Fold this protein.
Amino acid sequence: EAERQALALMNHVNVASVFDADTTDLGQPYFAMEYVPGLDITAHCDQQELDFRQRIELFLQVCDGVTHAHQKGLIHRDLKPGNILVKKPQGQASTVKIIDFGVAKSLHGKLGAHTAHTRIGSFVGTPVYSSPEQILGHQADVDTRADIYSLGVVLYELLVGVTPYSDQELSDKSQAELVKFLTQ
């Protein structure tokens, strides 16, 4: 439901489109979304052997889509390569599509109280790409800067080939240990 409401607010070339959204007779929300044939952004860049400039050009499309979401008052909160797909029609330029706004947070309360299904002290996102305030679970402190942090990690991975920290480095740590580790 949160994803459906969030996507309904947006209309941008770099954000996957929602074609239909409703609720079944049993009260189950559903939506029909744009199918994005392609790979996640890092896999696409690696498979196509894109150079530095081409990777930056794709990343700028990601920034455009995220900027649009922020202008609509939405924070994605789970930006990572798996939620950034690249559509490459035969003979045409590649287009980035941001997907999965299922844990999006509204800056303006437009999505309702259940939007993020989060509470104080709970974590939303993917640790390797998440900001310290997200990891700590201080959802009231999570704003557009959390997405910018995630964008920095995605860019780092696009250019260097690995994330700044590995999943293994982060997996054995508590929330407090993660924050301390990430802010040192």
Observations:
- The domain at 2-183 is CATH 1.10.510.10 (Transferase(Phosphotransferase); domain 1).
- The chain has one domain: 2-183.
- The helical segments are 2-8, 41-47, 52-71, 132-136, 144-160, 167-171, 175-183.
